[in-house]
Design a protein that fits this description.
The protein has 479 residues and is mostly helical. It has two domains: 2-189 and 201-247 and 364-475, no CATH class; 248-363, no CATH class. It has 21 helices and four strands. The strands form two sheets. Strands 1-2 form a two-stranded antiparallel ribbon. Strands 3-4 form a two-stranded antiparallel sheet.
Length: 479
């Protein structure tokens, strides 16, 4: 109860203090959601789109039902998702057998995370994606404590929802299915002790009795994910003639990260943060106009305006010319963008390698790339450096401790394993795709869990003992 109240208070204060919170629509999610209410089409006007995943626009469409109060309803929705994320993280620490102080640390790290606080004021997917990621970790811990096929099926459904929120989640869905094959093979009895459950390692197998349960779990996991994803795939097959599993946005995102304008900028010593994408956007819209317009204006007496083709903003809201006036081959444009990005990579391998390092650094950087001139922005910048610098150090220390031979908490170890696999896969994805530090926000609970373990009593005692022995050795007199 106190955890939920604390999370609600923190998020509510931020929403009240940030001017114009939840008004801007930088990625066009609200536009798609409102269009669903007005035209009964998940897209723009009468043209369907698969540029954005559908889950968050559906939530925005629900908020839009309330008319002038839609912004307030969305604020309540973000508050509810934030509180649910913190509560699930708190309960996850209970299932992982952490101490009370560690539980509060996890709740505080998730509730006050700077990226999540900023995201809670934006019409973007970070708040929803972090909730789904925390729910998936929570369900995975439930499955580890007592493996049953139905729990695996619910985990699959949560993973499917994650794909409908963020397309990159698809690789985590597949990796989780593989991890299920090596999960605990026994089904714990109701009278089993916690010590017996925690002592059963992920890597142990008990032979024949576990195999049918694992197969059933994997089958229901697949069914759960499929039931969630199939409506989206069928809709795309009907609308675009191809069963698109994710979105038609991936090619653009990859080309944004691998184009001749950016590579030239990097070859001259520039960075990702000071690159001006306007020439790229202009060329992109010109290519869309010349190559992928299916036919001329859908609405009569509406001539295209220059702003429809040339966007001066780096936002992907202007990804295509105004689809209310133009019919666009999104699938063809997506494939063409992938081809152009791969061509740029192939022709500039050394610059690509440097760009990869910059993207990885930007994904895991401690603070925003740009520091404002006013005092408040500078305070926020250095606060982020201190926050994430300290959390990363504790998380690395905690991960080392969790995977030492002395640690017998297999539930914690195997729950964190799923999160670490996702961190590796996410970093791998951003080898090729455009990167911002906010894209790591779904990993917040994973980092908090690892950081909290570093403050365990045994770990601190061992550290102090090592430090004391070193000091004693320094003060010893030579013979």
């Amino acid at each position: 109860m106190w955890v939920a109240a604390f999370a609600f208070l923190v998020r509510a204060v931020v929403l009240l203090l940030v001017p114009n919170a939840l008004q801007a629509d930088p990625d066009g999610y609200r536009t798609v959601g409102e269009n669903l209410l007005q035209h009964r089409v998940l897209g723009h006007g009468n043209q369907p789109t698969a540029v954005r995943p559908p889950l968050y626009p559906l939530i925005l469409a629900f908020c839009g039902v309330f008319g002038p109060a839609a912004r307030g309803v969305l604020a309540l929705g973000h508050l509810a998702m934030g509180v649910a994320t913190v509560w699930l993280a708190w309960d996850l620490t209970h299932k992982c057998r952490l101490h009370r102080l560690q539980r509060w640390l996890v709740a505080a790290l998730v509730a006050c995370d700077p990226l999540l606080l900023r995201a809670s004021t934006l019409v973007m997917t970070e708040t929803l994606a972090t909730l789904l990621a925390t729910a998936a970790l929570h369900q995975w811990a439930c499955y580890l404590r007592q493996p049953t096929p139905w729990k695996a099926g619910l985990l699959g459904a949560l993973m499917g929802l994650g794909v409908l929120c963020r397309p990159g989640w698809l690789v985590w869905l597949l990796a989780s299915a593989a991890i299920l094959l090596i999960c605990p093979k026994h089904k714990s009895r109701s009278n089993s002790s916690d010590a017996h459950i925690l002592g059963h390692s992920l890597w142990q197998a008990d032979g024949g009795e576990g195999s049918p349960m694992v197969c059933a779990s994997l089958a229901l996991y697949t069914v759960g994910a499929t039931l969630v994803l199939v409506p989206w795939v069928i809709r795309n097959a009907v609308q675009f003639g191809w069963p698109i599993l994710t979105t038609t946005h991936g090619g653009y995102t990859m080309l944004l990260a691998n184009n001749s304008w950016l590579y030239e900028h990097l070859s001259q010593g520039g960075s990702l943060s000071d690159w001006n994408p306007q020439p790229f956007h202009q060329a992109w819209h010109q290519q869309i106009e010349e190559r992928f317009l299916l036919h001329k204006p859908l609405l009569r007496n509406m001539a295209p305006q220059p702003s429809d083709i040339f966007s001066e903003q780096p936002s992907t809201k202007g990804l295509f010319p105004d689809p209310c006036r133009w019919m666009i081959d999104e699938f063809g444009a997506d494939r063409w963008a992938y081809q152009q990005a791969m061509r740029t990579i192939w022709e500039n391998p050394s610059i690509f390698a440097w760009a990869v390092l910059l993207r990885w650094g930007r994904l895991w950087q401690l603070a925003p790339s740009r520091v404002g001139d006013n005092l408040f922005d500078q305070v926020v910048y250095y606060a982020c450096v201190g926050w994430y610098g300290g959390e990363f150090i504790l998380a690395i220390w905690g991960i080392w401790g969790i995977y030492t031979k002395s640690n017998q908490n297999s539930i914690l170890r195997n729950t964190l394993l799923l999160g670490l696999v996702w961190a590796v896969l996410l970093t791998g994805l951003h080898t090729f795709y455009w990167t911002e530090m906010r894209m790591r926000s779904p990993l917040t609970t994973v980092l908090a869990l690892a950081a909290a373990f570093s403050l365990s009593f045994n770990r601190l005692s061992s550290t102090f003992a090592i430090f004391a022995s070193c000091r004693k050795g320094e003060n010893a007199k030579p013979l």
